[in-house]
Design brief:
185 residues, alpha+beta, Topoisomerase I, Chain A, domain 4, Gyrase A, domain 2, 4 helices, elongated
Length: 185
Amino acid sequence: MINDTLKQAETRMKKAADDLKHTLSGIRTGRASPALIEHLHVEAYGMEMPLNQLANISVPEARMLVIQPYDRSTMKAIEKAIQNSDLGLNPNNDGQVIRLIIPPLTEQRRKELVKLVKKEVEEHKVSLRNIRRDALGDLKKLESEKQISEDELKRAQDKLEQLTSQYTRELDQIGQAKEREVLEV
């Protein structure tokens, strides 16, 4: 019972760390990355679809993305979705492909992005604390129902605290790596 609760908490914490990595991959750095735009929602065929389902996205150069739609009739919709996004990118359409030139980031924009990274890391730390709180509640419930002893509860709490510390450090490392990437000129 204790192991199940701890395993479940660890699984949820791992998902939080993975989600942070995924979220931060969408934050723009000076380099071109398909993760920057692949989840943009495009109004096509009467519904909203992620860009990666409508086109092939490639990185021919360090500061350029090339979007090649599977169906050329969706080019205007893809262009419009990019222009309406908060990325601040201007698509160049030559009738065959859409090119996105990623301009170098200004110092002010870099600082804003670092703040955004820190905010995301903090939000994910809050989710770790919520996971810890839920697991602690489950463990205390087991103890109050006399399914585990007070000593077992104490040991389980210690293990849970170690898990939380481990994943908090991991979130910090992920955030620091992204900050370095954003600040890199």
